[in-house]
Design a protein that fits this description.
about 325 residues; alpha/beta; Rossmann fold; six-stranded parallel β-sheet; three-stranded mixed β-sheet; 13 strands; about 40% helix
Length: about 325
């Protein structure tokens, strides 16, 4: 990419997409093509094709997706698989038809089998059964990876995939019913302080282990991959996919304790074992990306503290 390249960021209003836009603007890229879901319905193949024909993007960051936490994934199973399949299929196919120079597809760590060996390596993809609660979403994301790989192998498209671990940061979703664990905990603890509650109930046992990555680190990694990696430099049968994470994990119980400390909640934590835990452990092996020269830089405690500071000034609920 050069500073004048026409760059389309799909999903620019979401947490991941908005972070990519911030990173591009910080690096001096101003020729960005942005459309919200009202202006362009990515589930509509005709509309997507017409958009690509008119705008002619040279580079595409595909960060658009329907996302949510355990409850949302498990409740709206049809919505999650249908909408994500349509979005990625339409954007990837249009990128091929209109000769996009390079595309980066943003996936998710949930693509890996529930009981895969830890840490999760890229070649563990499709090696076992998925976590049932988010299987439809995971299957849709796996399809996106396979689409990029298929277009690369059949047509020589410079399409790659990045698999971020659990993200948090600016522009996150704080809906208690639909958000991921870290923003949900932030809201719960802040609300508990406001209401002078003496305890907070946390879903599950608190035992699952997760890796949490600040979304600005994710954006930096995506920018790095878009600048540094090309399929022409790769063996034809190597999967063009890279994990993005910190390489460190923390239990949900310890995460809750850390967030309680940061926000100033001094009550008790109660774990609701009737709620699902999800995958026991999900730690990304980031050695493949690290070998290229990139690693995360934002410490978890510092990152959460920054998010909390922002929330105190402007709560989205």
């Amino acid at each position: 990419m050069n500073k004048n390249s026409r760059i389309y960021v799909a999903g620019h209003r979401g947490m991941a997409g908005s972070a990519i836009v911030r990173k591009l603007e910080l690096e001096g890229y101003s020729n960005l093509i942005l459309r919200n879901s009202v202006e362009l319905d990515l589930r509509n193949q005709v509309a997507v094709n017409d958009f690509f024909a008119t705008e002619k993007p040279e580079y595409v960051f595909l960060a658009a997706a329907k996302v949510g936490g355990i409850q949302a994934n498990n409740t709206y199973r049809a919505d999650f698989i249908y909408e994500n399949l349509m979005i990625e299929a339409n954007v990837i196919h249009a990128s091929y038809r209109h000769e996009v120079e390079k595309l980066l597809f943003l996936g998710s760590s949930c693509i890996y089998p529930k009981l895969a060996l830890q840490p999760l390596k890229e070649n563990y993809l499709l090696s076992g059964y998925l976590e049932p609660t988010n299987q439809p979403y995971a299957i849709a994301k796996i399809a996106g990876i396979e689409l990029c790989d298929a277009y690369r192998r059949q047509y020589g498209c410079n399409f790659i995939s990045a698999m971020p671990t659990n993200l948090y940061g600016p522009n996150d979703n704080y809906d208690i019913e639909k958000s991921h664990v870290l923003p949900a905990l932030l809201r719960k603890f802040m609300t508990a302080i406001e209401h002078r509650a003496d305890e907070v109930v946390i879903w599950g046992s608190g035992k699952p282990l997760r890796d949490f990555l600040h979304v600005d680190d994710m954006a930096a990694a995506c920018f790095f991959l878009m600048q540094r990696v090309n399929i022409i430099d790769m063996p034809p049968h190597e999967l063009a996919m890279w994990n993005i994470g910190t390489g460190l994990d923390i239990s949900i119980a310890d995460l809750a304790t850390l967030i309680a400390y940061i926000v100033g909640f001094r009550g008790s934590l109660q774990f609701d074992n009737t709620k699902p835990d999800g995958t026991p452990r999900k730690l990304m092996d980031v050695s493949k990306l690290k070998e290229l020269g990139w690693q995360a830089s934002i410490n978890l405690e510092v990152g959460i503290a920054d998010v909390f500071k922002e929330l105190k000034q402007n709560k989205p609920w």
